Amino acid sequence: MNIIQRSKTQKIIDTIAFPLRAFTIFEEDKWGLSSLRTDRCDYCAGEVQGYTLDVGCGPDNWFIHHNLQGNGIGIDVFKYRGLSDENIVEDITHFPFPDAAFDTVTFIANLNHVPRSQRDIELAEAYRVLKPGGNILVTMTNALALLVVHRVVEWYDRIFKTRHDMDNIRGMGHEEEYYLKDEEIRSRLHKAGFTNLQKKRFPTVWGLNWVTIGWKKDQNLSQ
Ligand SMILES: C[S@@+](CC[C@H](N)C(=O)[O-])C[C@H]1O[C@@H](n2cnc3c(N)ncnc32)[C@H](O)[C@@H]1O
Q1: Would you call 137 helix, strand, or coil by DSSP?
Q2: Which CATH topology does 8-215 take?
Q3: Taking the C-alpha atoms of 164, 169, 174 and 180 in order, what is their torsion angle to the nearest 10 degrees?
C-alpha cells in the first residue's frame, strides 16, 4: 500500500517546533514546518489497513487524497473547498456504502464534531461498513491545548481576516464539542461493538494528541 508520510528529519524539526506550529499555522504547512493537520493525518496513515473511509474528511479530502493516494473515500456534511458531490453526505446517520466495504474507518479530529445524539449512530455505521478484522481510528487532542489553540487562531482569523480554522468556516453546532474525554470515546466504541481498544500518543505533538484504535472482530480468527 502506497502511503505518504513525513521524513524522519521533518519529524524531528516538527517535534522541536511544536509550540510554534500549534499557534502559528493551523491547517497549512508553512516555513518548513508541518501543520497540525499534517501531523494527525500522517500518524493515522501508518495505522490504516487498506481501503479506507474517512468520516468528516474536511477540506480537499486531504487524508485520502494526499496520505493514502486515493485509496479510499472521504465523506463530510459540509462542502469545504476541494470536495465533490461524492464526498457530501447530507444525512450522514446513514453511510451510503454496503456492509463490509472498508478495511479501515477514520474519525480524524472529528468525533467531537459529530452532534452528541448522532455519535453512537455514526459509530454503528462505521462498524457495519468495516470488514471483519478491520480497524477504526478516532483521534482526539488534549482539552486545554485544543481550547487555547482554537482561541488564538480564532482571534488571529478575526484580526487578519483570514480563515485558518476550518471549524470557524463552518460554525460549531450546539451538540458539537471542542474535545471528548477518553471514557466517552472508549465507551461509545465498545457500545458499537469494537474490541481490543488501544491508545497511542503522537510523539511529534509531545503526546498531546492521540488516537484510539478499535477492531471489528473477525469471528473466523481468534483475536
Ligand atoms: C476539525 S474538522 C477535521 C477535518 C479532517 N478530518 C482533518 O483532520 O483535518 C471536523 C470535521 O467534522 C465534520 N463534521 C461535522 N459534523 C459531522 C457529522 N455529523 N459527521 C461527520 N463529520 C462531521 C466537519 O464538517 C469537519 O470537516
Answers
A1: strand
A2: Rossmann fold (3.40.50)
A3: -30
Give me the pLDDT at residue 25, please.
Answer: 61
DSSP letter for each residue of 35-70: -HHHHHHHHHHTT--SSEEEET--GGGHIIIIISTT
CA–CA distance, 136 with 181 (Å, rounded to integer): 17
Which residue numbers in the chain have pLDDT < 50? none
What the block records as the C-alpha cell of 90 is 447530507
Q: Contact, 170 vs 102, CB < 8 A?
A: no
User: Residue 204 in contact with residue 33, Cβ under 8 Å?
Assistant: no
The residue ranges of every structural domain in the chain are 8-215
Strand locations in the chain (E): 52-55, 72-75, 102-107, 130-141, 195-201, 209-215
Dihedrals φ, ψ of 187, to 5°? -70, -35
**Which of 77, 118, 167 for mutating ligand 1's site (highest number of atoms within 8 Å of CB)?**
77
| pLDDT tens digit sequence for 127-157 | 999 999 999 999 999 887 777 777 777 888 8
Residue-level pLDDT at 172: 77
44 Cα–ligand 1 center, Å = 15
Q: Ligand 1: residues within 6 Å at CB?
A: 37, 40, 55-58, 76-78, 92, 108-110, 113-115, 118, 122, 166-167, 170
> CA 86 to CA 72: how far, in whole Å?
12
